Amino acid sequence: MSAISLLNPKAEFARAAQALAVNISAARGIQDVMKTNLGPKGTMKMLVSGAGEIKITKDGNVLLHEMQIQHPTASLIARASTAMDDATGDGTTSTVLIIGELLKQAENLISEGVHPRVLTEGMIKARDKALELLEKIKVEGKPDRQRLYDVATTSLRTKVDRKLADQMADICVDAVLNVQREDGIDLHMVELMEMQHKTSTATTLVRGLVLDHGSRHPDMPRKVENAFILTCNVSMEYEKSEVNSGFFYKTAEEREKLAIAERDFIEQRVKKVIELKRKVCPPGSGKSFVVINQKGIDPYSLDMLAKEGIIGLRRAKRRNMERLSLACGGSAVNSVDDLTEDVLGYAGSVYEYVLGENKYTFVEDCKNPLSVTILIKAPNKYTLAQIKDAIHDGLRAIKNSIDDGAVVPGAGAFEIYAWQELQKYKDEIKGKSRLGIQAYAEALLIIPKTISTNSGFDAQDMIVKLQEECRENVGPVGVNVDSGEVLQPVDAGIFDNYCVKKQILNSCTIIASNLLLVDEIMRAGMSSLKG
Amino acid sequence: MNSTREIITLQFGHYSNFIGTHFWNLQEASFTYEENNKPLEICHDVLYREGVNLKGEVTYTPRMLCVDLKNGFYQLPDVHRGLYDLNCSNLDEEILNSSTKIQTIQEEKIPSNEFFSDLVKQELLIDDDSEKINIAEKVYNLDNDVKIWSDFLKARFHPRTITSIDEYKHNDSSNVFNNFAQGLGLWDSYIMKETWTDNLRLYAEECDYLQGFHISMDSLNGFGGLACKALEYLKDEYSNKTIIAMPVLSDNYILEDENSELQAVNTSLLFSSLFEHSTMFVPLTTSSGGWIKSQSHLNLDYLSYKNNLDYHSSAILASAIDTFTLGYRSRFGNDSMQTMCTRLTPLGRKAVSASIQLPLGFESKSNLLDYLQNSTLPLWKPISPQCTTEMSVAQTIVLRGITENMLYSNNLIRDSKNPSHHCTSPSDLLKLFLSFCDHVRMTEVHSFDSSLETIAPFPNIFSQSINQHGFVESSSRSSTSVVAKCAAISGLHNSNSMRDMFIALKNDSSKVKGSKLSHMFNYDIDVMDYKETLENLLVLSDNYLINDCL
Ligand SMILES: Nc1ncnc2c1ncn2[C@@H]1O[C@H](COP(=O)(O)OP(=O)(O)OP(=O)(O)O)[C@@H](O)[C@H]1O
Ligand SMILES: [Mg+2]
């Protein structure tokens, strides 16, 4: 303990109280900004940078990243809450709101003399109970297509307008179901391809691949059908550099010879590819051949390929090598020695699309595409970004529900239910920590309250209606954002992710406790917050 | 068939971007749009790409990717953007008409400086002669206006060029990006691992004969670590390409606090990795200490620049880079990055030092022979930390802005036995001169007619005795005229004194011991690995010990 606090034991306490007040006001401040985002009727935010750059979003995570958050406590909350989004892809806004509310509840109690430690103990008990309740309310079972669609629309409607959301939900569900395999879902196998397009805004699903590059030779075909696809990671580029090393010790003649040998070496590689092409695409067979190479192909090699009617693409994305073999079959090769037919994939059609300086190659009509592409067209960058973010959320929501094997009724249903059950639970607990449980229960109500307020309805009225309905035990009830009445989220198809709800409960409890126990905040550090 | 051997430029960090900004401004100033009888000496296609925007207009932008922290730059709509933007007016309407409620959060607007205001005006008034502002002839003083590099960025970039790191903010004291390990960690972020690598691939895909990479990085902060990871990636994905690395050091990045050795440690870690992953590397700075604060800095006879302004020092370093790379950016001659590196880095001596003389100090109406005969040696000053250019085993010297008709005085009486009277080009004469007075076994000399184009936003750092064309004049230049161009010399030297640099660096960084190191790097760098790094530096410095076999 420092000298001053020894002289004046109250000093330490005063310092802590002050820090607590600072934390609480910071948490409230950030809560105020985020509040209006929540739910399908939340307001869109347009962030305009000092240089006039625009970002449009309704996503809590994006907002927290973009906003200039000066206050250290606020930025701690921001970082902790966005860390949670990284794990599940959702729930940032709710987390921030509940933290703010927990602190507000705590503020009153602490001013009445309750020790923060006692409160946090209660909160942790409440959290454990809430997690149990979550198990009770969740709807278990392998989700069918309709359920997945519901989850996706619930998520997407909180990010973009309804019409767009519903269309995107279909695409997201199809995309995930396409790439789903026995060993799980790898969302990397759903590629998002953005196209800035003068006039159109549209999102489509391509059952195959869209590559963001095209052929670099004027004589290569722009469109082929019945195409064998060779994916490889083999340089078809003549590198003078390989020859030049050891420069000093060689005569000009020797160097020239080496250069020719090197050129020849590359030529042989291309010839091997051509050989295979001739074998699998005999004249008149109606078959064609496409080479997609992760390494470079120089103009000389392109020329050789073009003469054979082969489409050659160079510098393909590393991950597309894997995706190509999933979409078209076959397997990527690292050498063109001993090429055989069974490394080849197949696509019904391969064609090029040019937009400004950008070329795109569509590899479509694959037999059983285990990798697909979602194509996003929009006239400007910020719309592209907004749609892309929303699709990311939608895809993850679908994957989460499949992985969880369960979903949770949304629209505030869980929060109302938890509030009611925590009231009962509170009575079983002795001592002051029940105050913490009470605070926790009240804090959860911020979710249905804010959803109502954002939809233009009175929060208190709504809560009273919901509490009454809930007591009837008719099953989960939530906010109808169109009418301001009570609805059955299960019937209305409003579902949240189980893992997201669980994360929200965990992280807001940890972060709020840390902020309340200011003395310990230094030691806690960020690592424990990610938990 | 087009046979340009393309180069991709990669810049990491704020000071690198300061230098880069001047570099690209210099390039753009040297473009001539008029049909000239004489083909341009410099082949800009080596560093630039041609493209088309959505309106069908042709664009010409650097084949470059730069990385900086959030808030380290901005892009003004009228000045920097717009090349690939579509008309925005109808889009704003679209937003207003949509059914959803929108709340606007507007940050404080960035004020435009005098130069940018004129630039915008000039573009608007392009056909209206009456109010024409001639930016090339106007004197600007931007010394107080320039805080970050976008404050004087005139060149326009392709939309994929700039990568902004959101994890750290520029000048954020609560979360500083000042150590190597942070940079290593940053490589795993989505923006680097996915977006940046993809942008790089898109550039590479466009190239028919990609020869290699120019890569510059801040050496004193976390960007060194990030650049190292990028270099490892290049090794993997673009093996066989030549890589010239330029670690850059600004005195202003060194804080004299308890962690003052951190900059030396960062630099050690970077240099040892450059030995492994680059073909050649050239440390660049105007401050003699490099990684430690020093009182002295580069001193050039006809420049009065302020070393505490990055805006100034970066202009000098950019001029050097623009000059010493001319050899393989020329339209004539078939030098490549590879041939230059091979020539300059024998026996594993990958680190070379750089030098400059700017302006030349060439008297107006004088001639090269007289200039050389009256000059003090060496003709240049080092711009690499804690080393000289003396005792070199190989060097490349580039002279620019001196044309053939400036070789000799009109009244020179030619002595048939004196070879120096019979040179046909500035490079021949300079080469001959150097062969007499310095004994570097392998000297490559290039000369170019093109001067450095030092119009605004190049800073006003020339002394008053330099005239508008960059030559020394007895009467002083009027305060309303600028030095529009200037002749310069710049070189790369494989000098034995690089050994001194490595030893000094090793000594400065070995002051940091175990626990302090762990503290500095938050345990992200292993103490044993670090010891090995320092040992490596020492082993490498020995490469510069023996020169008798050359
Ligand atoms: N149609 C709906 N009617 C009522 N409530 C809804 C509806 N759709 C979603 N909700 C509720 O809105 C909340 C989610 O809102 P939102 O997605 O804006 O915030 P979040 O998930 O907490 O944060 P993030 O910004 O990270 O997505 C959930 O509680 C959900 O149950
Ligand atoms: Mg959400």
Automatic annotation (TrEMBL), chain A:
Subcellular location: Cytoplasm
Cytoplasm recorded as keyword: yes
Membrane-crossing segments per the record: none
GO terms under cellular component: cytoplasm
InterPro entries: Chap_CCT_zeta, Chaperone_TCP-1, Chaperonin_TCP-1_CS, Cpn60/GroEL/TCP-1, GroEL-like_apical_dom_sf, GROEL-like_equatorial_sf, TCP-1-like_intermed_sf, TCP-1_chaperonin
Record protein name field: T-complex protein 1 subunit zeta
Predominant cellular place of this UniProt entry's protein: cytoplasm
Keyword Plastid on entry: no
MF terms (GO), sorted A to Z: ATP binding; ATP hydrolysis activity; ATP-dependent protein folding chaperone; unfolded protein binding
Family per similarity comment: Belongs to the TCP-1 chaperonin family.
Key words of the record: ATP-binding, Chaperone, Cytoplasm, Nucleotide-binding
TrEMBL record, chain B:
Gene3D superfamilies documented for this protein: Tubulin/FtsZ, GTPase domain (3.40.50.1440)
GO biological process, one term: mitochondrion organization
Compartments where found: Mitochondrion
Family: Belongs to the misato family.
DML1/Misato tubulin domain segment(s): 144-328
Pfam family, one: Misat_Tub_SegII
InterPro entries in alphabetical order: DML1/Misato, DML1/Misato_tubulin, Misato_II_tubulin-like, Tubulin/FtsZ_GTPase_sf
Main location: mitochondrion
CDD domains recorded: misato
Location of the Misato Segment II tubulin-like domain: 5-120
Name by which UniProt lists this protein: Protein misato
GO cellular component: mitochondrion
